[in-house]
């Protein structure tokens, strides 16, 4: 059956007008609006109360506050640092500290350090708690705008309000509060935009689309897991454009306008926002760290040269390497380590027993200094340099690498390396360097290294500081000096990088950069031409962040299995956070977790059953028509305009359609925030589940709204429904609240005496699973 849009509009108007003639709707609408505002105000108060309760207890560093507290101090002191997360979240925490008067002097060295006598710590926690409190009204508004169901919106707010783990994560100085907020705000922006689809290119349509894009940009500035909500919005956008592309009455120009509007607001706006936040980050941080472990090797020389206090900041030094020069060698691989040695030996249990360690160190250190020696001649001057005209190290030369502080030379063994078994061992061979007269020596063949310049040969002036990429190949073993990417054990190797000899000379890990040259007998030159520009630094920063993130591997099988993703939805394990005379455990509300899991199983069934019933019923009556106006498609059920269709049935159908549509997108959002963790080969923790948990709570709210607003009224008489529905609602909310009251002290924390003992625990009677650590 084909009908025109005007005829359809006339019919819809007549049905609506008849429904509105019953009278009393104005009073009902005003009463419902008043209820809406009262509920919103109530949940704002509850959210603030639950988040700010015991916010100063313990007044010590808790869990990852030790991590992000340091970074806030570095921002306030303008000290450049490396982190695997983007910059916006840390800048926001720094803003809280700055507004609260914090001066960045607390060390945040480790958990349990007290905050006494430090100003501005509590305002940072309060800022996080305020953002965490905003999750509750935001969830309420999002579900309301998605479903127009007060039952669903109220349920969503209650579940977020009384979720214990969310409270714990949003009252400390962490990135989780802004991450959770901007993820939910991004989804809210998507809902607002969806509700404006009937008026394309209107002002509210543009504002909604821009708001969604800005929230996406903000969430990507917090953590890269924000990509998951980007995928949700991207999937919706692709689906929406696909439907528009199939509309025969939509002109190509109008379709392209829709496409470009989305590109502008959902791609360009977030990208500009992200780059702007990075620019602020870089503008603030311009000093280098002066402490050990500065991770300087992660940055290219051109990057380091612009950090005040860095040894190569505005450096002037010899341009080319000559024999006798003292140099530092940095591996050319991304985040490459410095060649390093010290007075420690490999363990007696290995084939390298009692041999001096040669390692890779990530920061500048005096033990990174090596002297370039002729293959068979020692320096003859009193300052350990060669006399006569300087001789430059060229492509194909053989050299020895002498470690000046341990008086040893780098040697290659035919034995396997300790960590990377297909590589050869590198160690320090003791060597007494003569400094008073020239001595001809017969070096061991495994201490000689052939210099291979990657772009060489370059003649006599071969190895250029900061520019040349050089390989050191041991002709005796036929392998190249390399960084294996593995780390030595902390117990004897201090966690340093493993230096090996690699037969595969094509790998970038066999290339080295001469970063610093010390030779008072050579003229110095500047290297300002090597300083990198803004976009080069932007690209390099993200390369480094990606590389470091990929190396966050589990360090122990037990740690890795304790927090596997399949455990999260059922709350099979908890996560101990703090246990120094006060115990805090990251733990969810069991009732919420288990109800969510049940409703996750129910939701797909509701979708299938509803779609089957609605399509079959409409098709049997021949009532489905798809019409289009202003570039938007409408699927309308055609009815004869006899006035017999009641307003109640009409609203019932539209409510069901909204609820079902909400289920689709909330299910997608949940799985996109949960399933990817099964494929991550990195450390995963319980707190990674909470963005998915919040979507699960909203999904549960929609299903519950469907049950009490649609399913039960269809199956019960009005009299029974007036009794059963309030009873079910009260029982549902009561279970959630009672579970919160029973377990909330686990998340808020409680005083302990001595170490945790599961048999004498205060909460042993409510510990339903042995893996719950409280």
Describe the protein's architecture and organization.
- By secondary structure, the protein is α+β, with helices and mostly antiparallel strands.
- 45% of the residues lie in helices and 14% in strands.
- The protein is elongated.
- The chain folds into two domains: 5-15 and 27-278 and 568-766, no CATH class; 316-526, Trefoil (Acidic Fibroblast Growth Factor, subunit A) (Trefoil), CATH 2.80.10.50.
- The chain is built from 20 helices and 19 strands.
- A hairpin with a 7-residue loop joins strand 7 (408-416) and strand 8 (424-430).
- The strands form four sheets. Strands 2, 3, 4, 5, 6, 7, 8, 9, 10, 11, 12 and 13 form a twelve-stranded antiparallel β-sheet that branches. The chain has a three-stranded antiparallel β-sheet with strand order 15-16-19.
């Amino acid at each position: 059956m084909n009908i025109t849009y005007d005829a359809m509009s006339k019919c819809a108007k007549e049905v609506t007008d008849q429904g509105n003639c019953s009278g009393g709707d104005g009073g009902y609408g005003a009463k419902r609006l008043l209820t809406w505002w009262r509920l919103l105000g109530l949940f704002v108060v509850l959210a603030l109360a639950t988040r700010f309760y015991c916010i100063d207890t313990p007044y010590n560093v808790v869990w990852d506050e030790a991590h992000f507290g340091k970074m806030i101090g570095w921002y306030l002191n303008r000290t450049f640092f490396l982190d695997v997360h983007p910059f916006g979240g840390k800048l926001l925490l720094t803003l809280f500290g700055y507004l609260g008067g914090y001066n960045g002097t607390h060390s945040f060295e480790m958990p349990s350090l007290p905050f006494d006598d430090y100003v501005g710590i509590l305002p940072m926690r309060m800022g996080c708690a305020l953002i965490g409190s905003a999750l509750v009204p935001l969830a309420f508004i999002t579900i309301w705008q998605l479903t127009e169901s007060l039952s669903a919106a109220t349920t969503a707010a209650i579940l977020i309000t009384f979720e214990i783990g969310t409270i714990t994560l949003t009252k400390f100085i962490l990135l989780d509060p802004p991450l959770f907020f901007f993820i939910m705000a991004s989804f809210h922006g998507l809902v607002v935009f969806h509700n404006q689809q009937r008026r394309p290119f209107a002002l509210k349509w543009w504002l909604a689309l821009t708001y969604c894009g800005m929230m996406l940009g903000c969430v990507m500035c917090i953590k890269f897991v924000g990509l998951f909500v980007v995928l949700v919005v991207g999937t919706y956008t692709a689906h929406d454009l696909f439907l528009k592309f199939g509309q025969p009455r939509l002109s190509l120009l109008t379709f392209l306008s829709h496409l470009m509007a989305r590109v502008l607001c959902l791609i360009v706006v977030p990208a500009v926002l992200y780059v702007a936040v990075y620019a602020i980050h870089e503008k603030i941080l311009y000093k280098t760290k002066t402490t050990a472990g500065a991770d300087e090797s992660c940055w290219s020389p051109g990057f380091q040269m612009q950090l005040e206090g860095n040894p190569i900041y505005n450096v002037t030094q010899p341009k080319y390497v000559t024999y006798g020069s003292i140099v530092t060698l940095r591996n050319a691989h991304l985040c490459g380590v410095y060649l390093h040695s010290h007075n420690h030996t490999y363990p007696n249990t290995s084939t390298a027993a009692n041999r001096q360690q040669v390692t890779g160190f990530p920061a500048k250190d005096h033990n990174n200094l090596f002297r370039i020696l002729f293959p068979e001649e020692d320096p003859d001057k009193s300052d350990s340099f060669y006399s006569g005209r300087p001789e430059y190290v060229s492509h194909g030369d053989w050299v020895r690498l002498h470690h000046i502080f341990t008086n040893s030379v780098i040697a290659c063994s035919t034995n396997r390396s300790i960590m990377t078994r297909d590589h050869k061992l590198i160690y320090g061979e003791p060597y007494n360097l003569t400094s008073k007269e020239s001595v001809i020596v017969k070096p061991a063949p495994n201490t000689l290294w052939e210099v291979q310049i990657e772009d060489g040969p370059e003649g006599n002036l071969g190895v250029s500081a900061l520019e040349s990429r050089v390989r050191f190949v041991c002709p005796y073993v036929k392998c190249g000096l390399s960084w294996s990417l593995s780390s030595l054990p902390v117990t004897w190797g201090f966690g340093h990088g493993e230096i090996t000899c690699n037969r595969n000379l094509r790998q970038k890990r066999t290339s080295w950069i001469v970063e610093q040259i010390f030779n008072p007998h050579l003229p110095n030159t500047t290297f300002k031409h090597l300083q990198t520009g803004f976009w080069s630094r932007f690209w390099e920063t993200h390369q480094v962040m990606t590389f470091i993130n990929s190396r966050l591997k589990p360090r122990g099988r037990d740690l890795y299995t304790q927090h596997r993703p399949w455990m999260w939805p059922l709350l099979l394990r908890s996560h101990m956070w703090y246990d120094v005379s006060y115990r805090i455990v990251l733990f969810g509300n069991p009732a919420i977790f288990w109800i969510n899991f049940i409703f996750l199983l129910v939701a797909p069934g509701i979708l299938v059953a509803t779609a089957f019933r609605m399509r079959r019923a409409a098709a049997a009556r021949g009532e489905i028509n798809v019409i289009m106006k202003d570039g938007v498609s409408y699927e309308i059920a055609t009815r004869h305009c006899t006035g017999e269709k009641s307003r109640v049935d009409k609203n019932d159908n539209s409510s069901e359609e909204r609820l079902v549509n909400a289920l689709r997108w909330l299910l997608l959002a949940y799985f996109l925030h949960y399933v990817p963790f099964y494929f991550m080969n990195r450390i995963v923790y319980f707190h990674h589940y909470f963005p998915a948990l919040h979507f699960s709570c909203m999904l549960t709210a929609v299903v519950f709204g469907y049950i009490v607003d649609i399913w039960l009224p269809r199956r019960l008489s009005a009299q029974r429904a007036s009794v059963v529905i309030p009873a079910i609602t009260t029982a549902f909310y009561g279970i959630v609240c009672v579970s919160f009251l029973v377990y909330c002290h686990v998340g808020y924390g409680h005083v302990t005496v001595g170490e945790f003992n599961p048999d004498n625990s205060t909460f042993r009677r409510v510990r339903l699973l042995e893996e719950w650590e409280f």
